[in-house]
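Supplementary Methods. Inverse-folding protocol.

Structures were first reduced to a discrete structure-token string of length 202. This string, shown here, constituted the complete conditioning input.
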């Protein structure tokens, strides 16, 4: 799973609006990847159950997670939604672009948001980035015919902890490349890792 995780490229654009970008290649046809990302039954098998009026201008709600409006949908290449989470959500949008490449599909995800300063200084891009890494890992397993990991226990397994730690560090590298001070990055990576994979209680 760590090798699967490392297939992705990560980039951070750090301004008033923070933009996280993830790019990776899947060995699956573009139509298959598109359906996996937009069909409610398939989404539940690798990501989360979704409900709502699933059309452009309609709204969606991921169970226990974000919801929002479907802003653009151009099968099988572009999906753009607002991504609202929590009691007082600010600007947040997610865009997924697919393109046929090298016999498979290039998957590009861009999440742009205004992030509260205290959250950014505490966790950096990993707060959101690790979650997306885990989601895209799930998509890869699904496209390859594998089973969804148990989200309740994944962080307790040795492999799960390696995946989370690797993801957190990778987003730390993207944070550093975007110009953040090394000490701030190190603290954010440690906080993010502890959030997603807290030490088991003795």
């Amino acid at each position: 799973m760590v090798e699967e995780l490392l297939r992705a490229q990560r980039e951070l654009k750090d301004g008033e609006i923070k933009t996280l970008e993830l790019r990776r290649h899947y060995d699956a046809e573009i139509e298959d990847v598109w359906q996996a990302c937009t069909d409610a039954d398939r989404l539940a098998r690798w990501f989360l159950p979704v409900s709502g009026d699933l059309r452009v201008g309609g709204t969606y709600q991921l169970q226990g997670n974000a919801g929002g409006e479907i802003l653009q949908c151009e099968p099988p290449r572009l999906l753009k939604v607002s991504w609202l989470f929590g009691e007082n959500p600010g600007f947040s949008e997610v865009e997924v672009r697919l393109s046929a490449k090298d016999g498979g599909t290039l998957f590009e995800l861009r999440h742009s948001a205004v992030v509260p300063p205290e959250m950014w200084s505490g966790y950096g891009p990993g707060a959101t980035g690790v979650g997306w890494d885990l989601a895209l890992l799930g998509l890869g397993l699904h496209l390859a015919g594998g089973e969804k990991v148990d989200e309740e226990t994944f962080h307790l397994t040795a492999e799960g902890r390696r995946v989370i730690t690797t993801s957190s560090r990778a987003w730390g590298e993207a944070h550093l490349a975007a110009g953040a001070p090394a000490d701030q990055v190190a603290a954010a990576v440690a906080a993010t890792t502890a959030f997603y994979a807290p030490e088991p209680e003795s």
